[in-house]
Structure to design on (457 residues):
């Protein structure tokens, strides 16, 4: 069978430099010390590349990034972290040419095959990936050595041809779910900035959390500006529920664990939030009441009805966070329980660290959020749903939920999907996202160690 061959670095990817991807592996799979060590080796790697010592610079990067790291940890980074950064650097013109070929598509990479194979096959729809293989010992740890030899200067004619049938082209599958804590590609300059900022960021996060927990809610939006934070509010929130009336159900998009807290700060009163599978530490530190659901439909319905009889309530029907501009499928349960529904579009911007995780300890999510120099939250209140758009007019709960999802997506400029919480956790963590109440102590310790790896190793 004939095949078309394309080099990954410098062709499908705009940047031929692979240093940032090894930095990601070092940080996410091992820790901050290895991350710093690899950065210190960057001048040596550049010198080896410039004096033409074969592929010694590449071999030094591989050894420094993965030696002693578990093979499963490297595979997790390749599955959950790297695709986002690889997609951001994709050259769409070269991709269009490659995807137009009917022959077997082969992508050649200088990086270890395990680091890019999942992205290339699942998102770029290539048939085969050619790259070096990592050597792994009998304990499942990478030795830092490779076999198969690296490949350079691969000739791929696809980057010099033109495509005239663009309407017939496949498009690369978007990266909807990704994990890891770093927001920006850790180029040498960015990595140095992250290293210098981290101790300051930790101190700033602690100060922000302590001050925020001591202040009344009405003062939070004003004081947050003094510490570099910002809350942007659009639309007009409804007034508090009057005594004797059922409360308003605020239906929010789910971006971080901070969504209900920020909403309460904007409304200047404590609004209880419906939660599922957040850590006990987050519940204890939460400045607002939380209502833990069980995922047993009739039990959860009764809990929500009871809370609404007391006043307003916040719910995030997606059931989990999503970092990219997509909305996951909305659970229809909220639509069955009340007609007083106020959609709220939540979004946020951070500079260094993501405030969500699928594999790490969620109790640290607020700390990572407040470690960012200038975190920004955007809260947009939409009008309460008219009666004709609720179940009172005969609409099914699924129709109401889908309608709310669409108007929130349109407000944010996002795209609606049918993906669920289970889909996210199967991609990022290899499980369905369920949390058992009888989780073993050993498993909890492992989760804590995994979360703290980037900062303690």
């Amino acid at each position: 069978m004939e095949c078309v061959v394309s080099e990954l670095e410098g062709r499908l990817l705009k940047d031929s430099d692979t240093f940032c991807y090894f930095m990601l592996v070092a940080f996410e799979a091992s820790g901050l010390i290895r991350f710093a060590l690899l950065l210190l080796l960057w001048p040596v790697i550049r010198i080896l590349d410039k004096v033409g010592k074969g592929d010694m610079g590449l071999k030094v990067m591989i050894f420094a990034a993965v030696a002693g790291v578990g093979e499963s940890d490297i595979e997790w980074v390749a599955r959950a972290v790297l695709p986002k950064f690889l997609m951001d650097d994709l050259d769409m013109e070269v991709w269009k040419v490659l995807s137009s070929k009917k022959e077997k598509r082969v992508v050649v990479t200088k990086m270890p095959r395990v680091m890019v194979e999942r992205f290339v096959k699942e998102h770029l729809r290539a048939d085969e990936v050619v790259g070096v293989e990592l050597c792994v010992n009998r304990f499942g740890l990478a030795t830092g050595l490779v076999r198969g030899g690296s490949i350079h200067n691969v000739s791929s004619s696809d980057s010099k041809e033109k495509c005239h049938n663009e309407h017939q082209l496949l498009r690369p599958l978007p990266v909807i779910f990704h994990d890891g804590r770093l927001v920006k590609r850790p180029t040498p300059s960015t990595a140095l900035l992250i290293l210098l900022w981290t101790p300051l960021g930790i101190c700033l996060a602690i100060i922000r959390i302590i001050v925020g927990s001591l202040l009344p809610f009405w003062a939070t939006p004003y004081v947050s500006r003094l510490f570099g934070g910002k809350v942007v509010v659009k639309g007009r929130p409804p007034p508090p529920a009057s005594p004797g009336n059922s409360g308003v159900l605020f239906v929010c998009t789910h971006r971080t664990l901070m969504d209900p807290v920020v909403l309460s700060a904007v409304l200047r009163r404590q609004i209880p939030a419906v939660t599922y599978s957040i850590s006990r530490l987050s519940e204890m530190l939460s400045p607002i009441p939380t209502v833990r659901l069980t995922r047993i439909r009739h039990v959860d319905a009764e809990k929500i009805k009871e809370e609404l009889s007391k006043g307003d309530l916040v719910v995030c029907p997606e059931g989990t966070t999503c970092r990219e501009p997509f909305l996951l499928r909305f659970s229809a349960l909220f639509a069955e329980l009340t007609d007083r529904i106020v959609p709220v579009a939540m979004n946020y911007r951070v500079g260094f660290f993501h405030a969500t995780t699928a594999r790490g300890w969620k109790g640290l999510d607020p700390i990572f959020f407040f470690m960012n120099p200038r975190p920004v939250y955007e809260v947009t209140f939409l009008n309460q749903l008219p009666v004709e758009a609720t179940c009172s007019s005969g609409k099914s709960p699924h129709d109401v939920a889908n309608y709310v999802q669409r108007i929130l997506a349109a407000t944010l400029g996002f795209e609606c999907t049918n993906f669920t919480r289970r889909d996210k956790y199967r991609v990022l963590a290899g499980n369905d996202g369920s949390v058992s109440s009888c989780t073993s102590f050993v498993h909890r310790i492992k989760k804590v160690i995994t979360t703290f790896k980037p900062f303690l190793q």
Observations:
- The chain has two domains: 3-168, 198-456.
- Confidence is low (pLDDT under 50) at residues 153-159, 161-169, 436-445.
- The longest helix spans residues 188-214.
